[in-house]
Specification:
Strand content: 15-25%
Oligomer: single chain
Largest sheet: 7 strands, mixed
Radius of gyration: 23 Å
């Protein structure tokens, strides 16, 4: 009798312990869900630009590392080059503008976003579609917490740190390289789902992020070398790319220069010439851009024409000139896989 009572009490204790463990794990899961819910976009495109809203031969401009800040600060950025690029992009009137991060110099400073708003008024006047990716300067060295100033500047993102755009028949995907892109991470799984569910008519996918997955190092400085986080992304894209019917074009920044690579059937670009203090590059044989010009304040224009995607890098010849002069310094064509 006593032994039976003890057994019952032991079972009750185990049951209560189990309830406590279930409650504790559920609470932990709830915390994870609550803290990460704002970071995620769901399956399918986050935003949609109907094909009927785009011209037949649409254009996309990409660049990054503008570092909008007090124009008196000429150490960390070149205000004249920054403003010349903004004006030139507005005059081009692209159907989408893709920015690969480091939009402000100090993401915790609302004044820097005010400068961004003032200096890019021409973009709003031209009704440009602007699709930014988060850089490290937006987070002001705090890679985990969401940047309130960022979402105040882009309220349509509603707390998302990565998202996708069905751009007519094509796709634009903005990633957050401040958070994990490694195999099995939430962001990598989301990206894999996005690529797996691409519409059959999609020929081109632009993937924008700040830290480059493929790049040459800064000359004499390893502080901006390719990190394992982005190497993991390149590895995962290399695995999935052969099975995709769409061509991948990956555009990053962080290194304040221009670079172009073709790796695993994917176009990799570094476009960090938006105005930030320039970085000289130790170019490798794999870098398809060989021009020695420096600095490379620039933007890349993609134009759909005759069934192919034609790209040109336009460089600001002299940042100190009273009237900007633009040079077409690199050009390449991306052919659809279906051809």
């Amino acid at each position: 009798m006593k032994a039976g009572l003890l057994a019952v009490l032991a079972l009750c204790a185990l049951f209560l312990a189990g309830l406590h463990l279930i409650h504790r794990n559920a609470y932990q899961d709830a915390k994870v869900s609550a803290s990460e819910a704002d970071l995620l976009s769901g399956s399918g495109p986050t935003f949609t630009v109907p094909a009927a809203s785009l011209p037949k031969d649409w254009s996309v401009i990409a660049y990054g590392d503008t570092r909008f800040t007090d124009p008196a600060n000429t150490t960390v950025t070149n205000p004249a080059a920054r403003r010349a690029l903004v004006a030139k992009i507005a005059s081009e009137h692209p159907d989408a503008l893709v920015i690969s991060g480091d939009l402000p110099y100090d993401g915790a400073n609302p004044d820097d976003y005010q400068v961004f708003k003032q200096e890019t008024a021409a973009w709003r006047d031209a009704h440009l579609r602007v699709y930014p990716a988060l850089g490290n300067h937006e987070l002001h060295k705090d890679e985990i917490r969401g940047p309130p100033t960022w979402w105040a500047a882009f309220p349509e993102l509603k707390g998302r740190r990565w998202y996708s755009v069905a751009f007519g028949d094509q796709y634009i995907i903005a990633l957050d390289s401040d958070l994990p892109l490694t195999a099995g991470s939430r962001q990598q799984l989301w990206l894999a789902d996005q690529l797996r569910k691409l519409p059959p008519q999609t020929q081109y996918v632009f993937i924008s992020l700040h830290h480059p997955p493929v790049a040459d190092p800064i000359d004499g400085d390893n502080s901006h070398d390719v990190r394992q986080n982005e190497k993991s992304l390149a590895d995962s894209l290399a695995q999935v790319s052969p099975s995709l019917h769409a061509q991948l074009i990956v555009i990053a920044g962080h290194i304040h220069n221009y670079q172009r690579f073709a790796q695993d059937g994917i176009v990799y670009l570094v476009s960090g010439g938006g105005g930030a203090r320039p970085h000289p590059i130790a170019r490798s044989a794999a870098d398809l851009y060989k021009d020695p010009s420096f600095p490379n304040y620039h933007y890349i224009r993609f134009q759909l024409k005759d069934g192919a995607l034609h790209a040109t890098m336009y460089r600001l010849a002299d940042p100190e000139a009273s009237a900007p002069v633009w040079q077409a310094k690199d050009s390449f064509t991306v052919i659809p896989k279906s051809q």
